[in-house]
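In the lab's daily routine, each protein ends up as an entry in a very long ledger. A line of letters takes care of the sequence, but it says nothing directly about the fold. The fold becomes a row of whole numbers, each drawn from a learned catalogue of backbone shapes. The protein below has been through that process, and both of its lines are reproduced in full:
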Amino acid sequence: MHIIKSFNTFRRGMLVSIATSAVLVAAIACSSEQATSATSEPESSPIATQTQALPPTQVTEPTTSPPPTSTPTPLPVPDLPKFVEVAAWGSDLSGELVFARPNGIAVDDEGNLYTTEFQGNRVRKISPDGELLLEWGGSGRGPGQFTAPTGIAVGPDGNIFVSESGTSRFQKFTPDGEWLGSFGSIGFQPGQFDSAMVIAISDEQRVYVTDWGNGWVQVFDTAGQFIETLASWGMEPGKLFNPTGIKIGPSGDLWVVDRGNHRIQRFSTDGKLLDFWGSRGEAPGQFIVPTSISFDSDGNVYVSEVNNSRVQAFTPDGQLIGEVAPGTLQGPHGLAFDQSGALYVTDTGHDIIRKFVVQ
């Protein structure tokens, strides 16, 4: 009798143990399915078809800040200034100035324009009234020659820096076009480029160049000495996917057009993520292939788009103000304001440079 009771007790214990194990197995299976669903990339995600090689693992990424835990108070949205086109040069508008896909544009302290031509492979210096003052370059890979130049910037000392997507380098010139040096080479290591796109110079004599293929920003001094890389390839906030436009903002921060992710990102000059905004789409305030960025005297942000063929204005926190000259542009790229507040746009698809003033 004692043996039978012991057996029944043992059998009940085994049944409880088996039932408990079944519950645990089911819970683990359910948890695994949820985790798999949460981490799956949608079929339409760009990263699913991205073949770009990641940057070298030995590069140390800068620290990025997580998105803010509370929503900051939005900035007041001003009225869009009324921009009026007062001049346009190129195409059939002027016999002297004919452009072959104008791209980058910069303004010096005297109000003169410097432009690059993606197909023309040259730099032109133009007065505010549209007079051609100087040009230099020519197709090639030698000193002072260009292959698909894209970006241009004027340094604090007046020297001109030109980035080239075709030769994966940037070159330095005097304001009169005298060649001073060439920096960078094609590759995937720090100090090398997989298509050097757009260039910006800080007051501290640091040269920032967006690297399209490697998905980062390369930093040099104005003598061409490599300093560091900022950010890395990816889709998360603080990472970059085919970056193009870059500009030092009014407060000294670094603004980057994250073209492949259809957004704008703001960093400190040492690479710390400060803010980001934007999404893909055709609606007002959205982007498809944003390209360049600039700022008016009030600190508002202007962004050009190739696919949507427009220039939109935003508050610094990403609220839409409005569109400049709707229906005028075709695939615009470069943007630059002069000290008087005039806005210059390289209307790349029309081979025209347009000048707008606020009325």
About this structure: The chain has one helix and 24 strands. The radius of gyration is 27 Å. The chain has a mean pLDDT of 84. Residues 206 and 288 are 30 Å apart (CA to CA).
